[in-house]
Design brief:
Blueprint (H helix, E strand, L loop, with lengths): L2 H10 L4 H13 L4 H18 L3
Helix pairs in contact: 1-2, 2-3
Length: 54
Amino acid sequence: MGIFEIGKISKLTGMKINKMIRYAELRKQGDSTVTERKEIMIEHLEYIEEKYEY
């Protein structure tokens, strides 16, 4: 998935802009940032799950 697709999905699901920017910065830095990028996505997934819990 490219950065534009990730950005579009992140925006649609309510990810804060500063988180999107941080993710993009980390992605530019390469594979050494995979763990931190994964943490950002996991944190956002937890946010989505809480927000849309019935």
